[in-house]
Amino acid sequence: MKQGTRRGALPILAAMHDLPFDLPEFVPGTVWLAGAGPGDPGLLTLLALEALRSADHVVHDALVDPRILALARRGAVIEAMGKRGGHTDSAKQIDITERLVELARQGLRVLRLKGGDPFVFGRGPEEALALAEAGIGFRIVPGITAGIGGLAYAGIPATARDTNSAVAFVTGHGADGEVPDGFDWDALARGAPVLVFYMGLRHLEAMVVRLLAAGRRPDEAVAVVTEAATPRQRVVEATLASVAEAVAVAGLKPPALLVVGPVVALRAKLDWWHPSPL
Prior knowledge:
Blueprint: H1 9-15, E1 31-35, H2 46-54, E2 57-60, H3 66-69, E3 77-80, H4 93-105, E4 110-114, H5 124-133, E5 138-141, H6 146-153, E6 167-171, H7 185-191, E7 194-198, H8 204-213, E8 221-226, E9 234-239, H9 243-250, E10 256-260, H10 267-270
Parallel strand pairs: 1-4, 1-5, 2-3, 2-4, 6-7
Antiparallel strand pairs: 7-10, 8-9, 8-10
């Protein structure tokens, strides 16, 4: 894998050695579960960048931007182990956790790098629990979750003073890959003015049916953001009743966020970021 950074990145990396505080040591034989943010490498935290520059072995999921992987230290092993809904070649969760334990027991500094935040619909808790049960030391490094950072890059705030004082973050599919039915759709529809669905494209039509049946308005503003905060970002605005057709016409593909509610209308004035092609 070609290693490198974009112009301007090296001074930032060098400056990390002159910080007015100490970053924690990445101890051999431990695992850091880190969030890579929604896409833009500039959204990495200092701890996530330190992990990339220190790790012996990086085990990443399918949503980590290649520009972020390029920041790994020279000589680090980069291993893809990601889960993607509907993909038969996705790694099984048990295989991922066993691999993390195996690598840590070899005395390596193991970075498990996930898109967004590992504790927000990221299976991070399962992996951390497996490490704890195996007696492996670990650190959680939170990242900017896509439901906040990804929407911001689309010019859509998760909350705004004049529109909503509550927001609900919802997974678009359950552990079995189907539409989540483990919660009360009526309560969800009434409980928050703004709903943000992760990984919801696969079951978009079914979720729209449930939301309409639960009382959300057919003309309510909706946006779908795909590959947020990357050069491939696309945004489609529609109404709740028309969003499934709009997505089909646009040919949008996962990964995607679906946001329902009055904050979508603010994009008309807040659409600040226009990605350049790679």
